[in-house]
Amino acid sequence: MTSDSQSESGGVVSSTALLGPPRVVCRFSCGAASAVATKLAIAKYGTVEIYYNNPGSEHADNVRFINDCEKWFGQKVNILKSEKYSNVDEVFEARRFLVSNRGAPCTSEMKRIPGDSVWTWGCVEIYGYTVEEKHRVAKWRENNFEKTIECPLIDKELTKADCFGMLARAGIELPAMYRLGFRNNNCIGCVKARDNLDYWKRVHLHFPEVFARRAKQERDFKIAINRRTRNGVRAEIYLDEIEPGEPKGADPQISCGLFCMAEHEALEHGSNTVYPTKPKVSE
Ligand code: SF4
User: Fold this and answer.
1) Is the pLDDT of residue 161 over 80?
2) CA 52, 184, 116: angle at the middle one, nearest 5?
């Protein structure tokens, strides 16, 4: 009789190995870390299934980055899209809502639902969380014990900076958002970038049309993404009230993935809800 064992990041090496190789699903986010995690998964498992949830509002340079990564992986990246919405703006307009402490509707519609559609019992999921996020992964895993999750970057103690270096050595240019000074390669004008005026100054600087659209949505829906403290008073600040200027500080680490989805699910549905929806996989 065999027993299950656990990798350092907590991924279960399951006795299902007796039943043949597992289905391996790499959650490729178009970020540097998930690219390296996918490469490490391919080195471990050989053929894997690579999925990218396209929310329709990320930088156009992601197409180039995906092409470069496909050559590096030697495997195709499958694109998952929402069947209801083409981009995050359509979600915001349909819901008349942007974000709150409980999360953002775009995460659910554009990432969780399409992503859950390719999950099956017993599959191994590969995530590009880095060693800096080790403790958050541990907490998330406790609430999602039915899933088999591997985080090869945590297992190998790799940081985000390590991933940037590995991509550079592979001759792959980082996605444009990093090169413009953004910390994450998320949607342009991500509504989860809350309470960081420098992030929005950076959006204003590089993507004024997205900034203007988000500012109008705030007023239309009467929802301010940001709050700031002045003279000891915490208050909402709308995007059109931010004084223009060069961003000075660093962007926040914006999570649009398993942690915030898990928090949202726990609030809305209980911690282990799975949404079986037919995937829409495009070329
Ligand atoms: S990256 Fe930001 S804007 Fe895009 S889906 Fe996630 S939370 Fe929404």
Assistant:
1) yes
2) 30
